[in-house]
Amino acid sequence: MLRSPTKRDAEAFLERMSNRKGSVVTEHESLERYNVDWTKQFIGKSKILLKPQTSEEISSILKYCNEEKIGVVPQAGNTGLVGGSVPVHDEVIVSIEKLNEVYDFDEVNGILSCESGCILQFLQEKVASSNHLLPLDFGAKGICMIGGNISTNAGGVYYYRFGSIHANVLGLEVILPDGTILDLMNKNRKDNTGYDLKHLFIGAEGTLGIVSKVIINCPRLPTARHVTFLACESFDAVQKTLDLAKAELGEILAAFEFMDQAILDEVGKEKKIPIAKVDEKSGEACNYRFCLTVETLGSNNEHDLSKMESFIEKSLANGYVVDGVLAQDLNQLHEIWDIRLSCNPIIKSAGYNYKYDISLPIEEYYSIVEEMRERLTSRPDARDMNWGHVIDGNLHFNVITPGNFDEDPELKALLDPYLYEAVAKRGGSISAEHGLGRSKKKYLGTLAKNPAALDIMRTFKSIFDPHGIMNPGKYLPMD
Amino acid sequence: MLRSPTKRDAEAFLERMSNRKGSVVTEHESLERYNVDWTKQFIGKSKILLKPQTSEEISSILKYCNEEKIGVVPQAGNTGLVGGSVPVHDEVIVSIEKLNEVYDFDEVNGILSCESGCILQFLQEKVASSNHLLPLDFGAKGICMIGGNISTNAGGVYYYRFGSIHANVLGLEVILPDGTILDLMNKNRKDNTGYDLKHLFIGAEGTLGIVSKVIINCPRLPTARHVTFLACESFDAVQKTLDLAKAELGEILAAFEFMDQAILDEVGKEKKIPIAKVDEKSGEACNYRFCLTVETLGSNNEHDLSKMESFIEKSLANGYVVDGVLAQDLNQLHEIWDIRLSCNPIIKSAGYNYKYDISLPIEEYYSIVEEMRERLTSRPDARDMNWGHVIDGNLHFNVITPGNFDEDPELKALLDPYLYEAVAKRGGSISAEHGLGRSKKKYLGTLAKNPAALDIMRTFKSIFDPHGIMNPGKYLPMD
Fold it and tell me: In the predicted model, what is the mean pLDDT of residues A202-223?
């Protein structure tokens, strides 16, 4: 059993951070934004926020909490969508925001070493200025931190091209609950010396320790970039367009993103959608059934443009694509991307969001939306709005109650576990890239993992965190 | 303490494999090649070889050995170079060679599912016939098995382009020492449901269990392939050529391999080296100081050739490269690759091989050879011959005693631990892609991993394999 932290604990924490001003925050107002997650659906009641500046300070804090049996919620940018980064009760929040030093970017070997609290976009710009690319990109890049990206095994739009975080992280430093500073700071691209422990902490959502330092492999910065926005009138056509993109764009294909009409309608209220059709009945302009954002990244502008144009021509000639636009300059390119990257923030302000992040075999990708839509016919107040990284089989299925910002338990009960069961039946994953947090913990043992795998996970959790102080009440069902 | 297996155990194993003929091998002659590793430097004394056909049979065998405390050596293609796949004493050998079924190649999603005993080359051909590429390639591809590749986290020539096994394996089935069939057979590219346990078994060299089934993500098969063979006269020029290749070839750069003059001289005794210089002193033809094999893989022949020609022109114009040849057809392409891929087999027949597989920062890549060469001046009977995947910082440093096939303890003592210490000092890795096996176990705790990391590894080993039956005497120093 964990206990509530007290004023005396706050004093002990302050001592452990050299009595530095601002290192312990206890004012209600200052704590508010750390207690509420991005979706505003998960709200904690922490009364103590800590801002350590070094690995040693984190070590000392965790050791104390471990001895005193005080719950700890590690927090990075707090941009997660599954309630993983805010307390369930009154756990102490340990923010990594002050761990923001870049140690080194090694231009010769393409290796970035930094602290885990660095903002993603800052790191992207840092390595880009040395002609390299940080192989991670998310809509939240201006706020999210690299340590949070790693702890949630975040996916993103370039996953297909540059691979997962497991593929790109070379080394980590992790502070364990007993205060051990676990140095896994390998800088070699190839290192076969023992069990590769770092992978255990990637996607562990802070339940085994706090990631404090990071080493990432960065490829050269591509010099040519092209983006097209295409329309398809059936999901079969989307699939065929994807297949054609893989064939025609080959190694320069970097992103292939999907949006359906409902999300386009919603985003269209705030942003201009560059292509539209005429509705047969009303005679008015309306959005296509599906739109795709396709990006190439390469090293030769002329070659890439020729590949992109050939892809677009063929997809039009085959009838897969019915309309499209190719960005002619960087402004248009950003406008096109802005539509896709606005999906999340725009629906957030439209109503209550029932958010689902799932993986499916491509041939089942949209069938699940149609099945759910049928299930929701009794609820005309709810509308599904969907987008995702279709090239990875990753769908963001969302149900919104426009204008109504309260959760409706009846609607929720219509959605899950039914949706997760439908995903499992199709061989998909109930969490593609957002993680488990509080949202999916209860389905891990029934719809995602078998008892043997779950047992091993529980064993690992008990070894690293015997008192269960790390991010309690989330991720792993312990009983 | 483990005990020696007996005739009664052999009978028990036979029963566990339905008394199938050939499933238990006890004849000395048939066992011989399973007891000797590829280097012929590691020789076991096993009297029992088992050839299970199913996961259930492996499960039953391991459960029995675990209860009876009999050591087990899992064996795949037995092509390893560190003595990991043959017994130290008389452990039972469990070969996975009969687990050779391909379950499915899903062309739409590019996903291969198969048993772990499938030969790599067979799998390569299988997925190539469906227009996809298996993202692994090694010289031993005609013999090595996918389960062995995964268990050793094998690297290879396309690692730079297609990433590590951690990046490409989606799912595994592993049989644990207690007989548990651990199903981690995920087919989704993105799956964030709990600790990603599969990574623990990748590169564990069979010390935690036996990999029995595999799911691998396969990209589209590139349609254009070009290979050039280039000469440089200094390592600084090699580095500059590598840098230029990354800039000019960008996303189509697939392999960038390195050989030094000594290995070229040795390979040149059996294979024609396509480019040579005139020796200033003797006036005779001789090999260049360094040669490079550079490959591109892409989707447009014309574009790729134009990039390749531009790269070669610039590297010649800049003086980085002094001579070169671009393969004009598939025959020439294979002849060029054959030189690089013959390094290992050719030096094996030249004398005793002291083999080292290390990672280094690129700027230190050849300095270590020079340091070792100086150290070996007292031994004119020994010659270093070196090659490697320079683009990954991976060097295969080898010392040969031409004509002398016996290990010389004095020479060995000159080489290690000095070499490993020199690697550690430079921030490199003492095992890049070959693994630990018997060769490097003793240096793991002193030159590769810190006590905290080593402790966790030992804990994991104890959890999965409390009696230490799996691949005993290797990998992890347990005391």
Answer: 98
For residue A449, the chain B residues in CB contact (below 8 A) are 193-194
Question: Cα–Cα distance between B477 and B479 in angstroms, integer?
Answer: 6
How many beta-carbon contacts under 8 Å exist across A and B?
A: 246
Q: With 90 as the cut, is the pLDDT of residue B280 above it?
A: no
Which residues share a beta bridge with A394?
A359, A389
Q: Is the pLDDT of residue A439 over 90?
A: no
pLDDT digits (tens, 9 = 90+) for A136-193: 999 999 999 999 999 999 998 999 999 999 999 999 999 999 999 999 999 999 999 9
What is the DSSP code (8-state) at residue B91?
Answer: P
Nearest C-alpha neighbor of A297 from the set A157, A434, A192, A193: A157
Structural element, H or E, at residue A469: none
**Looking at beta carbons, which residues of chain A come within 8 Å of B239?**
108
Q: Is A297 on the interface with B (CB under 8 A)?
A: yes
Position B7 scores a pLDDT of 97
Q: In what order do the strands lie in the sheet with A102-106?
A: A102-106, A111-115, A210-217, A169-175, A181-184
Cross-chain Cβ contact A431/B192 below 8 Å: yes
Rounded percentage of chain B residues whose pLDDT exceeds 70: 100
| B130 CB within 8 Å of a chain A CB | no
Tokens encoding B364 = 């230190």
User: Is B182 within 8 Å of chain A by CB?
Assistant: yes
Query: Is beta strand A253-260 parallel, antiparallel or unpaired with respect to A290-298?
Result: antiparallel
**Across chain B, what does the average pLDDT equal?**
97
Q: Do A180 and B359 touch (CB under 8 A)?
A: no
CA distances (Å), origin B378, targets B372, B383, B384: 11, 11, 13
Contact A449 B193 (CB under 8 A): yes
- Nearest CA to A157 out of A259, A82, A250, A247 is that of A259
Residue B283: which pLDDT band, with cuts at 50, 70 and 90? Answer: very high
* pLDDT, average across residues B319-326: 98
Task: Tell me the C-alpha to C-alpha distance, in Å, between residue B225 and each of A50, A162, B304.
Answer: 55, 21, 8
ipTM: 0.96
Interchain contact A136–B (C-beta under 8 A)? no
Sign of the four-CA dihedral B363, B365, B368, B370:
negative
Q: Domains in chain A, please, with CATH? A: 7-95 (3.30.43.10), 102-217 (3.30.465.10), 224-343 (3.30.70.2190), 350-448 (3.30.70.2740)
Q: Once rounded to an integer, what is the mean pLDDT over residues B290-314?
A: 98
- Can you give B265-313 as a three-state secondary structure string? HHHHCCCCCCCCEECCCCCCEECCCEEEEEEEEECCHHHHHHHHHHHHH
Candidates B103, B220, B251, partner chain A, best to mutate (most A CBs within 10 A): B251
Whether the per-residue pLDDT at B479 is higher than 90: the answer is no
All residues of chain A having their beta carbon less than 8 Å from the beta carbon of residue B152 are: 192
Q: Is the pTM of this model over 0.90?
A: yes
Torsion of CA B312, B314, B320, B322, to 10 degrees: 50
Contact A453 B164 (CB under 8 A): no
Q: Name the residue among B187, B393, B460 with its Cβ closest to that of A188.
A: B393
- Determine contact: B184 vs chain A, CB below 8 A: yes
A130 at interface of B, judged by CB pairs closer than 8 A? no
Residue whose entry in the numeric block shows the structure tokens 């449901």: B193
Q: How far is A231 from chain B (nearest CA, A)?
A: 21
Render pLDDT for B8-47 as a digit per residue (tens, 0 to 9): 999 999 999 999 999 999 999 999 999 999 999 999 999 9
Q: A450 and B202: CB-CB below 8 Å?
A: no
Provide the pLDDT for residue A479: 66
* pLDDT score for A132: 98
pLDDT in tens, A306-315: 999 999 999 9
